Fold this protein.
Amino acid sequence: MPAASPSEQNRPPDTVFFLSDFGTADEFVGVVHAVIAAGAPGTTVIDLTHHIPPFDVRAGSHTLVRAVPHLGPGVVLGVVDPGVGTVRRGIGLEVVLTGGGTMSFVGPDNGLLVAAAEAASEAPIATAVELARDTLPIDRGATFDGRDLFGPAAARLCAGDALASLGEPIDPESLVRLMGGVVERGRLHDGRDCLRAEVLWVDHFGNLQLAATVADARVAGIPARGTIELAARIESGRVDPDGLPRSLVPDGVHLRCVEAFGDLKQGEFGLLVDANGHLAVVAGEASAAHWLNVVAGELLILAW
Amino acid sequence: MPAASPSEQNRPPDTVFFLSDFGTADEFVGVVHAVIAAGAPGTTVIDLTHHIPPFDVRAGSHTLVRAVPHLGPGVVLGVVDPGVGTVRRGIGLEVVLTGGGTMSFVGPDNGLLVAAAEAASEAPIATAVELARDTLPIDRGATFDGRDLFGPAAARLCAGDALASLGEPIDPESLVRLMGGVVERGRLHDGRDCLRAEVLWVDHFGNLQLAATVADARVAGIPARGTIELAARIESGRVDPDGLPRSLVPDGVHLRCVEAFGDLKQGEFGLLVDANGHLAVVAGEASAAHWLNVVAGELLILAW
Amino acid sequence: MPAASPSEQNRPPDTVFFLSDFGTADEFVGVVHAVIAAGAPGTTVIDLTHHIPPFDVRAGSHTLVRAVPHLGPGVVLGVVDPGVGTVRRGIGLEVVLTGGGTMSFVGPDNGLLVAAAEAASEAPIATAVELARDTLPIDRGATFDGRDLFGPAAARLCAGDALASLGEPIDPESLVRLMGGVVERGRLHDGRDCLRAEVLWVDHFGNLQLAATVADARVAGIPARGTIELAARIESGRVDPDGLPRSLVPDGVHLRCVEAFGDLKQGEFGLLVDANGHLAVVAGEASAAHWLNVVAGELLILAW
């Protein structure tokens, strides 16, 4: 992403990157856009996605981590917030980007934002505040902080207010954090090397992004060419009514190690390094998630 | 919402708020954006939602009523229009906002816009016109007024044309109106007080917004704390093949009166005042609509 | 669409029209918006749709063909790209619009863009280049050309670079092309005239747009008023497990020839000229696709 010039560093941000679990069937997203347009006219609001599964803070966090390296300076407004209206804090974070300029993060203190703030820059979090809250009109409930707290905070940043003016400073160590994705090297009983990795994300095309990166693959010694095996059992939280793990990848699924989706025949399974630098289990013009019956959060075993 | 300063009052609107039942699978929405960009460059177009159920004028109207208090000055472009191409009128409405500035409404005269225009301001509708229509090229059908009539009208307003220049004046009394949502106080046969209220809206999270507002609740005497009952029968238009009402809320569903979603245990049912000031039947990190099998338009009975 | 004035012709484009099969559940679309905002600040990005069925280049091409006559000058960014990362070329095309100004097209050379480029202007394609490709960082896969190649190319055009500076010129004759939709006049065994036409597109409302235009209908002699028959057999690639064609429109479906959806009773089938000038099989406030069990790509027979 382009670096901000020194003179740009003191200019307020002109772009808000907006992620939520609001969906787009209702007017929620549009109303937040309107609040930002009213508070900071001329701001560009870019929707990252509003289809994070309802209440899935972890999915929202992963999505932000993937996105931030490509966004450049601005304000990230993230709202996946099952605790809205309770004592959970609203927070603002700020990091100085390696290329110059700053990126701010506004949303709930529930683990949604902090990993992304740390992925956005090599520098640590420079500023963290608990957002001060105006009193709401008494004839409305406090169930829409996107409209009433976080959207206005993002607008104030774009209108030129410093993050520090939006609330009391807090210790970044006090922020709620999620656990990272599982990546483990090992050896199967038949002597083959293996890598056990969590499925972080199933994308629109049914590709399975693993927690393992290309660096993990290199350390583990996964061959860059040839074929490896997706070992039979998926160890998963999903359990059948009879108490057995529900999802079993059939024995003998082979993954061809390729560089591009188009290197696979239609329906053929493969393993590649995806556009985020993670290993991904994919299929040629088909949904690996569908044909392997895998969802985000499961553990897959690659063996070779 | 911020008030426009006196000098802003004569500036043309710079924002269009766009709602439709077009969905986003096709190019309809993008084409209307392009028409506005071509006719009034620099206009900000904010999508409220395009997922109003097809032809559901009532749902579109409710959505606009909820949204307008949060939008500020601009043009509301609303297109849910089963009568496109027939004799139904295309209309433009204008109200002066309490905080200053004006809000215009452009769309079909089928009840979609008028309640929102009245909700946007304490002042009555200041101007109402029937939009004049250009002759279409003969090699295309008149089935896309969003592109051919309403979008261009919104663009003309943003380009500086007065609403009165877009067509002949009409009497606001002549506008098509929908009936309001049902709210009735009563007493059950066992002596308990009750409130019967229509479900106006089921949102993305499965929350059931009732037609009853916090003011209705106060008048009816619904306790602000404690537990009330969602009485068994849903009186509904939905009927089973055997002629019985299809949806029955199981006996004995209790709603805990809370202030926030997060005050409920996962899956617990509750009643709260939502962000629009309406009563809503909700569930902790779950869909009340799904678990209670309720859709918009049904009548629920709260008893205490 | 408004014509650009002569002085505008040398200004870089300020609008990108973006179509893809990315869906909106992930951050893909937002990241491409961010890349464009970073490379060409102030550019308006209009999303045509991102819900082209995955890998369906033909559907993407049809959608662009329908949209371009209504877009005006700018850059069309189209990404439906099962061959990403393989040897297929990335291309840029440019046409001079009849009304003045230019429209550029950026995306994969797989048939997605060329028909739209030819539909946008009466003039032939003025410039065609193979996009030059930067070397990617080694720790990421080459699976997201929307972010890494096409989005940046669109941004460079909006920042003022000429298309010719983005890669080596190529011969427009060398571009990959799709076959057009089927339209055939004929006569049924019972002596009635008929028209066999491919279903190009099933829209959000379930309307079936045929490849036949109003001009085709005139040549074939389809009556403008009255009723015609949708002949029984749909000849289709869809086959039942027992080898029989899967979709059979029931005998005797009659289509009333009308001008507007609203001229039909609820659930009544009709035929009209749609907003793109094509014949469309529709139903009054209902989905013709659902009730006739028809999908895009099938052949329908109209008989009269």
